[in-house]
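Example (one chain per record):
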Amino acid sequence: MVTGERNDYSVCTTWLIVGSDYYLIDVFRGRLTYPDLRRKVAALAERYAAQTILIENAGPGTSLLQDLRRDLPPGMPYPIGQKPEGSKRDRMEAQSAKIEAGHMHVLTEAAWLDTFLLEVLAFPRGRHDDQVDSVSQFPNWAAKQRVLDTQNYVIGLPYTGRNLGTDCSTHWQPTKELMLLIR
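Predicted structure:
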């Protein structure tokens, strides 16, 4: 992995599932060397007490997935490979109904919010699409899991947020898992 200005970013989006809604609670975006990325994944997993780690099983993500599976940091859940299906545009279009229906939410105040919104709103014509790709892959994986997983976990974090499709503020109690998607 290289860290030059022309290189793609590594992105980690942290999600909370509450019923049929997805809450984006953190975005890490940076150009890191491989050792730094591995450390960042472990730190984010610990910070958010992640119960699931998803890693894009393509490009540099494949090496990270294999490395973490071979030498898992203490307390980190076994990472799951997420194979991208179709083009980035197709993946995002497949999630547009969830966004428009108000099932995907972001924080209203976060250090990463402006950069995130600029990239999402510029897609597919923007210079970067790494955050968009993470946003499109997570709900696809989560929807497949919903069929298999009916157990709930109570985490209990307060939240005031913005819906990706419309502006709204809401308070909620999470009743599902906290997850990271590494791209």
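Caption: The first strand starts at residue 10 and ends at 18.
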